[in-house]
Inverse folding.
């Protein structure tokens, strides 16, 4: 049996944080290097490549003992390049340490991804049988998100309604309105269930929502209180500034929203 001895530098892990830094912002690059060889190694360079082009180099002047792992933290300013991109870290690119195994000297990660998330869900009752579900989807990542779906499912997983979104720019929020029957007090909102968009975080794409519609209470803004805000909202509906929503504002059950409903909500607000 022939045993090959000598130096062997291995790049074990590369982490860039924060994960969503825009061009011009400084990130920290954490590099874990393990000496798998039988000799002390040190005084070598670490090269940074973006899409296989070297963009930065840092010198390492610390010794690493055999089978010792060291973590190096290096600051770097994200350049203005098309995102996402491939970021490669190469230890000792010129092999000045006479490394016997250079295949483990580098590690590549993908950086600059989008991040879709369900930012908010609102439910409004438009008629006695129909609900409007307004779902706000946000791209909190640092690259454009391409085609993806937004689905509303009931608690058993059956699709109630779905919509396709062509794209979402960096930082863009989009409100998507679903009209469904008022038979689902509990549902799930799922963004990009098919994983068409590679993201920073795949765990913020699902929201479980339970709601209770309180009909004819005068609570127009849904904060479970009746106060001057609800009076003003009802007045705006009564005089035609806002779209009428009798399910909440028709206090006397005459089928509409008018000054009588405003007075009735005002009486509730002041405790009469």
């Amino acid at each position: 049996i022939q045993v090959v001895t000598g130096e062997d530098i291995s790049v074990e892990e590369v982490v860039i944080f924060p994960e969503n830094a825009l061009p011009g912002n400084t990130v920290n690059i954490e590099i874990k290097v393990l000496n798998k060889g039988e000799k002390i190694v040190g005084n070598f360079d670490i090269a940074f490549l973006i899409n296989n082009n070297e963009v930065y180099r840092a010198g390492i002047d610390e010794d690493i003992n055999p089978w010792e792992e060291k973590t190096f933290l290096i600051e770097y300013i994200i350049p203005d390049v098309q995102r996402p991109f491939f970021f490669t870290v190469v230890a000792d690119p010129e092999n000045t340490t006479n490394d016997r195994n250079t295949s483990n000297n580098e590690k590549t990660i993908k950086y600059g991804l989008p991040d879709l998330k369900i930012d908010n869900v609102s439910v409004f009752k438009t008629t006695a049988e129909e609900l409007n579900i307004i779902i706000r989807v946000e791209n909190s990542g640092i690259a454009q998100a391409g085609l993806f779906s937004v689905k509303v499912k009931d608690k058993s997983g059956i699709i109630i309604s779905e919509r396709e979104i062509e794209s979402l720019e960096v930082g863009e929020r989009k409100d998507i309105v679903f009209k469904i029957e008022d038979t689902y007090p509990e549902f799930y909102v799922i963004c990009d269930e098919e994983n068409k968009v590679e993201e920073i975080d795949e765990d913020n794409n699902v929201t479980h929502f339970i709601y209770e519609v309180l009909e004819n209470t005068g609570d127009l803004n849904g904060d479970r209180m009746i106060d001057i805000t609800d009076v003003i909202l009802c007045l705006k509906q009564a005089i035609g500034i806002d779209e009428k929503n009798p399910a909440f504002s028709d206090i006397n059950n005459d089928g509409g929203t008018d000054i009588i409903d405003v007075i009735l909500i005002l009486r509730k607000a002041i405790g009469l």
About this structure: The longest helix spans residues 228-238.
